[in-house]
Specification:
By secondary structure, the protein is an alpha+beta fold. The chain has a domain of about 60 residues. The protein is built from one helix and five strands. It has a five-stranded antiparallel beta sheet with strand order 1-5-4-3-2, with helices on one face. The chain is globular and about 35 Å long.
């Protein structure tokens, strides 16, 4: 039987690790429609001013960065082969890239 007041079963989302001292500085480009459909496979917590999404589209993958303050500003990493984008996503999550 499930505990009614328990929230440990709820998946919140991913959080970024603190930025490492020697991190890779990524090039962020303005968002541009390059595929008819984009699928978001993973995303970080949207409760922060900056959030990230791991996106798939047109047989490639990229990371979308969204700033929310007075308005919304969206940038994208370069579009990569899915395996290369997965490595980049992991480095971003671990604080090794931003």
């Amino acid at each position: 039987m499930r505990d009614q007041g328990r929230t440990a079963d709820v998946y919140h989302t991913l959080h970024l690790a603190p930025l490492q001292q020697a991190y890779e500085r990524l090039t962020w480009n303005p968002a541009a429609p390059r595929a008819d459909r984009i699928r978001i496979r993973e995303h970080t917590c949207s409760h922060h001013a900056v959030s990230y999404e791991f996106c798939l589209g047109g047989g490639l993958a990229f990371i979308r960065r969204t700033y929310r303050s007075d308005g919304v500003v969206v940038h994208e990493s370069e579009w990569l082969r899915i395996r290369d984008a997965e490595r980049l996503w992991l480095r971003l999550l671990l604080g090794q890239a931003r």
